[in-house]
UniProtKB/TrEMBL annotation:
The chain crosses the membrane at residues 28-47, 54-79. Belongs to the OST5 family. It comes from the Eukaryota. Keywords: Membrane, Transmembrane, Transmembrane helix. It is a multi-pass membrane protein. This is Dolichyl-diphosphooligosaccharide-protein glycosyltransferase subunit OST5.
Length: 80
């Protein structure tokens, strides 16, 4: 396996600017909305825990919480 194609790909990518899927201005709104949806869905699941609700409510709640947390971290930044 040659390293040269990987280097060519790296050099070609250096000339293109990265454009995120969600703009910096709307990351906070999206993150907050996802975390709120996760709170509502997890609250509903805690009131009605059943194996039927696991893929319908709990899985979307956990995905919304995960993505919402990442978007909130991206929106407010991490300062050391």
């Amino acid at each position: 396996m040659s390293v040269q194609p990987l280097h060519d790909l790296w050099e070609a990518a250096a000339t293109q600017a990265y454009e995120p899927m969600v703009s910096k201005d709307s990351q906070f709104t999206l993150g907050f909305s996802l975390l709120f949806i996760a709170l509502i869905l997890s609250g509903y699941f805690s009131l009605n825990p059943s194996s039927k609700n696991l893929p319908l409510v709990a899985l979307p709640a956990s995905l919304a919480a995960g993505f919402g947390a990442v978007y909130m971290i991206c929106a407010v930044g991490v300062y050391v």
